Amino acid sequence: MHIPKFSNRDATLWLKDTKANLEINSIMHEGCINNSDKAIWVRAKLNGVDFRALGNQSSWILEIVQGDNIIFADYLLQIKQYLFSNPDINTEVSTGKTIYTASNDEHSIVITIIGTPCQNIISDEIFDFSVTVKLDNELFHGCGRSLI
Q: Among 22, 98, 111, 120, which residue carries the largest CB count within 10 Å?
């Protein structure tokens, strides 16, 4: 038996193990399965992230929120998160390149986003953008996509 976890006047969600049933406006959707890989990107978009990128060697994630805030997380030996605000943005239309530059009290970051396809080496997923992040003197390479 599914137990209701969320309900309002338009929708009810029942969860059991890894499956869910969702009723929206009296229409039942049964046997829904969470796709955690896609859910991460949807959550980011719903939280105002305009652009998201990731890399695997070492593992890192980049989120640009509403063009004004940058969140960079490095997962090398321990999770380190870096926050930057109000970046300088330089777009080179002829090369399809956008460069974000920002600094805070302790660190500086330069993000280069190029409009060329990029394939994640772990998942083989294809992304629309190649991304390079320079955090202080460390260089990170990966792939990203616009969430706008």
A: 111
